[in-house]
Batch of 4 targets.
Target 1
Amino acid sequence: MRQPDLNLLIYLDLLIKHGSVTRVAHELGVSQPGVSAALRRLRAVLQDPVLVRTGGGMVPTAKARAVQAQVAGALGLWARLADGDMVFDPARTTRSYSLLASDYIQFLLLPGLAREMARQAPQATLRVIPPNPYRRLQMLVEREADFAIGYYHEAPEELRTRRLFIEPVMCVMRRGHPDADCFDLDAFVRSTHVGVASVSQGSYSATLERVLAERGIQRRLSIILPSYLAVPPLLLETDHVATLPASLATALARQLPLQVVPSPIALPALDVSILYHDSQQEDAAHQWFRQLVVEVVSASGLTLSLPASDSV
């Protein structure tokens, strides 16, 4: 019995990752007709279209994704063997890491991450990508990014989650705000609010609005922003109030004439995790970066809510 060409698995992995014959050809340094021929052979071997054209481009079939998930770990192991990278040395690595992170996470963790990467892995690169609310964690599923850090309560089954910290939210307003000295429930309800919202289900903004609705409380949202760091200038010029993560709120209040007060309503805390594809669980370079994030979180004074161990 003739064995299929195992090189086809590399083509399968990259075709699913990029969804483009042109991009795969560029990455491998081969011709587009060569990649198209590999795609035809894959279709014959798997008896499946592998990629199908939609309005948004080429997307992989369910069977192709299932096969890729099975072989991803083996391909990663082979790549590390070929690179002589089975014993990972951060001081020598030229690895490029990609991270999905909101501006809140960037503000909170990037200074520490940058400092420690410069010290421990000076030749490594970190590429930070703002999360796309419509694709959410799909970039991790398709391995277009290595990690995501944030509040994600509806993660796909292909991903692993490691909880990093939990922190409360606080109310923020300008100094001299009429309700600053007595920000009670009545003040919360009559205030105009700046919301930080995502269209994604499972986002913190969705959780916050659900909890308020369950308690019969409706905020008067005057403006809704996609960015935490866009909030302070609005607060300084108005009597609006914002509900922000405590660490961000207190940091901003040290730099700007803002006042931070406890929320008069018990609101859900932000539960922040790092997520990554299951196929990268045993990758030594990934393990190093995950541990580095834990160390940076710990040094920042944020509370680790689980023991330092990975969990599904």
Note: The longest strand covers residues 159-167.
Target 2
Amino acid sequence: MKSKFQFYKNIILVVASALTLIAVTFAWFSTPKNGNLGAFSSAVAPNALVNVNFQQDVNGNGNYTPLSGDIELDSVVAGQYYKYRIILQTVTDSPLSITMSIDDLPSNLPADLKSSVNIKYVLKKVTANPDGTYTDGTTINASSDYVNLSSLTDGYVFSLSLKNYQTSSSDCFAIYYEIGLSENSPSTIEGKSASLGSVSIIAQQTA
């Protein structure tokens, strides 16, 4: 009798484990991953793990406003960089890892110009203020220098765990990043198609 009970108990445990795995996998792949920046705003999709908000510092004075369209580099000159910010707000108590990647430049750009487009980033934990602003806190990771977009493997900028910085189900993080041309760029991008309209943020549950 005991062996039969143990048999059924093991079956129940196996089924429960399988259901748990399916739920986690579904949560991973239900998280918004990429899309046109204009449409990819602050809306939380079903089973999403983070709320994502894309912003741009239009005047370079530290005042960020919602990014209403694609990242356009069609008038950038050598040595010029545009500043952006992505606000991530967690909507779960589960420990998360975050991956950021960015599409490469259009194929119609000359190779020497394409290799001059750089990105630099810093990931920080931030505090949301009642007036809609954010106060920077701990720096979690930062690129030491500008990284050439052509050198990124599959477009990946970084992949990091946030679990040591999460304290609640609604923690806020900010990815500050700059995109532009190196000082020794051979020319400007003016007149050429250079939309970087697909930035990917992947949130996954981690151990």
Note: The CA atoms of residues 95 and 207 lie 7 Å apart.
Target 3
Amino acid sequence: MSATVYNATMAEENRTKRNTFEDMVFTLFALLLLAQILNNIPIFLEERFGLTFGGSPSGVLLASAALSMDTPLGTRVSTPNGTAYYGTAGDEGSELGTFPPGTSLVLKDGPVEDALGERWWYVEDPDTGNGGWVLEDVLVKDGVGGLSAATKLGTKVRSIVDGILWQSPAALVALGSMRVGEWGILADGPKEKNGTRWWYFDREGSDDDGWVPESMLTLFSEKGWHSGSLVVGTRDTDLFERAGGGTVLGFLREGERAKVVGGPTMIGGVYWWEVEKDDGTRGWITESALEDGGMRGVMKGIVTTIVVIGTIITIILVGGIVYVTVRTNQIRAREAKRIKAAVPKAMQPKRNDRWDRVQEHVASDNPNDWRHAIIEADIMLDEIVTRMGYQGNTLGDRLKQVARGDMRTIDSAWEAHRVRNQIAHEGSDYILTQREAKRIIDLYGAVFEEFKFI
């Protein structure tokens, strides 16, 4: 019975150490998982629901610059990536020339649908007078991004369409490509080329940067509104004839609804939006005076509430995991101490006298004493293994049953025991030096110290 208690004590201490490490790993994993979930929430909302807290969805960006059947003639457009122009709509065999990337054009005729259902517009370069029919897909509206010659370097922008990053506006050597919706900052510019302004687009987190036409970019606003977005006034504010001020055209009261019809435009580091009230009054207003309205605002409010509540609950649960882990370890530690205290003192014998004799033998100048020291230490090892509850005809049989978790020094025990067997079997034929004898005794000593036997 006493041997069983001793074995239970040692096994419990080893299990406590393993479980403590496993609990620490689990807690760390839970915290990392929480951080990953919180980091991916905005991405999930944009991809699945079109709701975003960091900018407009890519589809909205593209739609804000795209032409439609209702686009009026005389509208200024641009070819961000350049395009060929033709003498006849839909007839790509009548190529007349090529408009370079960024060329500013004017719609003169169209749209005309070809046999494949694609729309064509007749456009003209006002600087050169060159004109022809081009596909609608290669054109974007000028001025939809809200940038101007006065836009400050360092301003955050976002790409409206897919495009190419060029080495310079004059030398059209491609450095890379950009996807619709990518973010970056204006690092240089503007430079005039082909009737349009060019900016150096410094993409966030990438060395793949370059020059792009202004028509490819839009100001980056945290609000993510676009034409048709419903907004609500946050305070009583004037509506101005242009971004930045001018004649007052109307008044938007706190809580009054309006619809976004233009913008954003940055003036002096402040975003401005053009809005239209229900009575038809239009005017420009600062972004800080507006907030989301309609279902978009309601949905954002609901989603934000869910995210906040979910985050609080998750933090509470993670805190609970940490608390339970700490309390469990405390209970295990107390139980291990209680079990150890219950072990009879007789089960914790101090074998210092025997160990002292072993040390005296190995320090002797007589080789027979060295052999006697190893044999005596092996007897002490056999007593420890037997008290741990392992069964077998010999010490070797019992050592085979010992798990590494129950004896950290099992390798030392095996090596020392093998030398003892060689001494027992070979007798005086086994060559044993005093240095080797001391090393073997040290192996036994490591085992005895682990189990507080010495």
Note: The longest helix spans residues 294-342.
Target 4
Amino acid sequence: MVENRDRLYMRLALEEAWKYQLLTYPNPAVGAVVVDSSGAILGLDAHKEAGSAHAEVLAIRDAYTTLTSDRALCATEDSEFLHRELPKRAKNLFGDSTLYVTLEPCSHEGKTPPCSRLIAELGFKRVVIGTLDPNAEASGGAAMLQNAGIEVRVGVERKRCEELIEPFKKWMEGRFLFFKLAQTLNGVIDGGTISSEESRRWVHAVRGKIDTLLIGGGTVRADRPMLDGRLAGTKAPDVAVLTRNPDTIARDIPLFGVEGRSVEFVDYRGVSELEGLVMAEGGSGMFEALKKEMDWMVLFVAPFVKAGMGYNGAQSFELLHQSSRGGDAILWLRAKNGR
């Protein structure tokens, strides 16, 4: 009974975290749930952006608001403020509650105070953790909570929780490269805009987080894109153009005119030297060129069919997660024969 309940709540935390996948870079995506002794959900939230409050803190904030008439905290994600105010206001409110979190609560003082210290101060009865933090600097929260007398369980839905933070782990190793693709139900990828405006806003938001946008030279020549983050109000990413013939690409194409951006040209060997979080976009040639370099693909499938061109070639993927945005299906796929 306890096992099934723990898995249920952890899956809720996972689902919430996936909504912000890649948007939390350079932090991992994390989700958290607070439940009371009867199993009622008091708070459910996720980390949304590096530098803002972590998932555990936001879920505890939501739980505090649920249990009290005090709404002074419900609209803020200011980490310092929440870490300071929650112990003063909540006191022993969570003595019979359980916190579920997909990743071990941090134990260090970084851009935010340590979550494990806050959880210990609030006196939670139990904390259930999906997987331990692979970052040695931030790990140790589970032991800190146990030393504070809190019952700790680690490893619930471990595989799914580790899949969630795979971009973070690969980035720590040097690079995480994902291919973004939009297509119709019948696989058409050309002929104008395909995905919904909401999906495109998400793409623009992610562009504001990445280190490099990798684009094929053929796509640049044909589409003359700008490749900025205007739909989400984010900064334009630096661009690497994959081409053997840089001199054939006109410099009056809009992407070259974006202020504060760097544009470099790379060949196939240069792709392997890119670092950090890299998003790739392009056509069939680009896809084929990156088959052994890509870690994941994020596939947007629009709910209509039309005539046009699709992708040719072969690649196998493992489905990690699926959701929807603006009417489009979103598939998060791990490349089986990638890096």
Note: Residues 15 and 31 are 8 Å apart (CA to CA).
